[in-house]
Amino acid sequence: MAFVNEPELLRDILVKDFHIFPDHLHFNLGNTNLAKAIPSFSSGKLRAMMGSIGGIADQFVKNLDEYAVNGKTADMRKYMGAFAMDVISACAYGINVESINNANHPIVVNAKKILSVDTSFSFMLFILCPSIARFFKLEPFNVNAINFFNNLTEQIVAERKSAMNTDSNKRSDFIQLMIDNEKNDKNFDSDYNSDEDMNVNQLQKSTETVIKSSQTLTSDELTAQGILFFIAGYDTTSAS
């Protein structure tokens, strides 16, 4: 077993050369659409969403203004959780739920069902004996919540495609990027800003490889990716 603590090497292993180091521990995600998640998010897509994130960050600061003025104690875990929820909802679905004031929003409610800690026997089987859990077709996450996000994704995709030629307000969330990719056969996965990361020949080879491997996500994969944003990004961000 090897431990890596050099930032540049970690970036190579986890980002640039991830395809060379694929042997990571896999968690059984069950039999729902969540199991169809694939690596499809990149810093290139993130940069396209910075406008939405900036607006949510501004509102986050405004929500804390009263604490700054009055000198009151703020529950930062609560506010950072709301901030993470809003950012993920906006980046994945293009919806700003303003969860700090809308705790009963359907996205918030169903996301928390998926994120909630489950200490049931079936969940422990997923952790300790994933092969047994897979044999009995058990599910580690709330199936109703996953179905909600499946329906939400299908609804958003259908609305976006039907309004593609009439909607003048171009969105920059993940679903829209995937729709644009399908329509224009363009690649949005470039993680390189300048020649500082690599020389021209390396950049050309990398671009050719990415274009050859680019693909359009299915509806099920879009659903899985959106839910994965919550699982991977919510608690890690708010707790940090």
What radius of gyration results from the CA coordinates? 20 Å
H-E string? HHHHHHHHHHHH
Fraction of helical residues: 55-70%
Low-confidence stretches: 186-214
Straight-line N-to-C gap:
27 Å
GO molecular function: heme binding; iron ion binding; oxidoreductase activity, acting on paired donors, with incorporation or reduction of molecular oxygen, reduced flavin or flavoprotein as one donor, and incorporation of one atom of oxygen; steroid hydroxylase activity
Protein name: Cytochrome P450
Keywords: Heme, Iron, Metal-binding, Monooxygenase, Oxidoreductase
Organism: Oppiella nova
What does this entry look like structurally?
Belongs to the cytochrome P450 family. Keywords: Heme, Iron, Metal-binding, Monooxygenase, Oxidoreductase. Helix content is 60%, strand content 0%. With 240 residues, it is an all-alpha fold. It is globular and about 55 Å long.
Compose a concise summary of this entry.
It is built from twelve helices and no strands.
What's the SSE blueprint?
Blueprint: H1 7-16, H2 43-48, H3 50-63, H4 65-70, H5 76-93, H6 106-115, H7 121-128, H8 130-135, H9 143-162, H10 174-184, H11 200-213, H12 219-239
Helix pairs in contact: 3-5, 5-12, 6-9, 9-12
Q: What are the main properties of this structure?
A:
globular, mainly alpha, 60% helix, 240 residues
